[in-house]
Amino acid sequence: CCEVTHDGTSKWGSVATKHACPPNSGTWTWVFRVDRCDFGRAFVGLAPYLKVITDKFVGGVNNGYGLMLQGKLQKGGRVENMHYCERIFPGSLIFMTYDSDSNRLLYGNYSERLSYGAAFSDISNENAMVPVISLKDKDDKISFVNFFFGAVLNEEYRGSPSKVRKVTSYSPPKGLVLS
């Protein structure tokens, strides 16, 4: 588990894992725990491996694809869907599944094995992609819980818990703390 906590001022900061998903490499799933996020101003998403912008949010300008915990989707700085899902509250476990073969990304409630459906079906496969957590408000915290090959689709777990891998992270930008 890797916890990401915002300990700075109200500015965006993002942290990505070091493990990238190459194009056409199958299905990848991550589970995140929302530990604290009072205003819902946090994102989880995907960004190109060599283009992660640590002082912007994932889904922001030239910074990938993201789900804001308020329930909206962002891509390239634009709101793609204002009402993709209900607001995600602290204590929630959410999953993000990336199918690098079909260039699709979806999210869901891991605890309930509930998929919110396709979020993006046009993920660029020119570069390897990495999962990203973006936080804005002081003391907000989201944790990478699990990372595995396989998918959690249609309320069904299609992966093997034995394939869980430890997540390692980049050094965080100023204002974010990893523990």
Salient structural properties:
single chain; 179 residues; mainly beta; eight-stranded antiparallel beta sheet; six-stranded antiparallel beta sheet; 14 strands
Q: How would you describe the overall organization of this protein?
A:
This protein is mostly beta strands. Helices cover 0% and strands 47% of the residues. It is built from no helices and 14 strands. It has strands at residues 2-6, 13-16, 27-36, 42-48, 65-68, 73-75, 78-81, 93-99, 104-109, 114-120, 129-135, 141-153, 156-159, 176-178. The strands form two sheets. Strands 1, 3, 8, 9, 10, 12, 13 and 14 form an eight-stranded antiparallel beta sheet that branches. It has a six-stranded antiparallel beta sheet with strand order 2-11-4-5-6-7, with no helix packed on it. It is globular and about 35 Å long. It starts with a strand and ends with a strand. 41% of the residues are buried.
List low-pLDDT spans: 151-173
Q: Report the principal-axis shape.
A: globular
Q: Report the structural category.
A: mainly beta
- Gyration radius (Cα, Å) is 14 Å
Q: How many strands in all? A: 14
Give the count of helical stretches.
0
Distance between the termini: 9 Å
Mean pLDDT: 80
β content, as a range?
over 45%
Order of helices and strands: EEEEEEEEEEEEEE
Assign a percent range to the helix content.
under 10%
User: Could you describe the largest sheet, including whether it forms a barrel?
Assistant: 8 strands, antiparallel
Regarding quaternary structure, what we see is single chain
Put the structure in a nutshell.
This protein is mostly beta strands and 179 residues long.
